[in-house]
Amino acid sequence: MTAITEHHVVYAGDKKINYLAAGPVNGPLILFIHGWPGTAITWKAQIDAFAALGFRAIAPDMPGYGKSTARRVVEDYSQEALVEGMMALLAGTGHHVGIWVGHDWGAGVTSSVARQHPEAVKALINLCVPYHTIELGWDGFLPLVNREIYPADEYEFGQWDYMRNWEENFEKTIQWCDQDPAGLCKAFLQRTSQPSNRFAPLGLVRKNGWLGGIPKPPAVDATGPPILPADVFDSFAADMQRTGFWPGTAYYLNHERNAEYNGKAPSGGRLKQPVLFVHALWDTVCDTKTSRLVEPMREFCSNLTEVTVEAGHWVQFEKPGYVNAALFRFIVDELPSEWPGFWDSGYTKKKLVL
């Protein structure tokens, strides 16, 4: 198994991004950007797989998480500030361009990087959250809610009600989360089954509270095994215990700043690079199957590939083999020159007509 090493970059004075790396330093660069909540180690299945093939695989603790700077400053978690950190991370790897893979808020960040610095993006791969949505603030995704499931007069914010709850009740909700960060993370990371309907319980958070309004998160021993390997989960849980939920959740408090920043993207935000989007079939929050959430991506990406995996929101944890295979095929099909060894392997092909 390829060794995973730990590194960091310092930028903007005294901010730090901690990251994990594996694979040959000069191999094609692929960066894995986690969402809420998460840390670098949660990408271990992808780091191992890609490094073993000869990629240089990088996964940061995003600002607000793990060993990266986690100040209680809301502006630190705007897309503009996060992109600044990602550009520092890229420079720290010794590369100037890479394949960017993002999940959840990580997909918002990779989308922002692609919008603002297309020269740094060889290809964009987003899981669950499409390009041209969350990085644009409320207007990027709220109008795309399926109003047959969430009538506007009853569910103004649709399945995104929990996001509005962060804006209205941030400190109170953080206090609830921080009663047991490890227990809450384990409750989130349970295996998903096919939903009986497409209504997301997170559409009722302001009415009922988190997890139906229980007084505190479930204890670690109150839920089943997590979908992450035990050692990976334990490391992730320790990371969340260290920072608490405040810094990483402040990503949700910057919608207006994000809209202003990404509204000024070069080329109007249209992408020419290859883009892969992974649908999680059973994801009822980032619902890309019955809502219009994917429509802007299809309009703004000229070279788009889509694949669907039967899993919930944590698709790369539930079905790592399927997700990795989708990424491998996409790179081989769309970016063969980025496949390790392409340029020096002497690989040739001949067809003999009989």
UniProtKB/TrEMBL annotation:
InterPro entries with a match to the protein in the record: AB_hydrolase_1, AB_hydrolase_fold, Epox_hydrolase-like
**Which SUPFAM superfamilies does the UniProt entry name for this protein?**
alpha/beta-Hydrolases (SSF53474)
All residue ranges annotated as the AB hydrolase-1 domain in the record? 28-320
Q: Which GO terms describe its molecular function?
A: hydrolase activity
Q: Which UniProt keywords apply?
A: Hydrolase
Q: Which Pfam families match?
A: Abhydrolase_1
The record's similarity note reads: Belongs to the AB hydrolase superfamily. Epoxide hydrolase family.
Q: What is this protein called?
A: AB hydrolase-1 domain-containing protein
Q: Which organism is it from?
A: Heterodermia speciosa
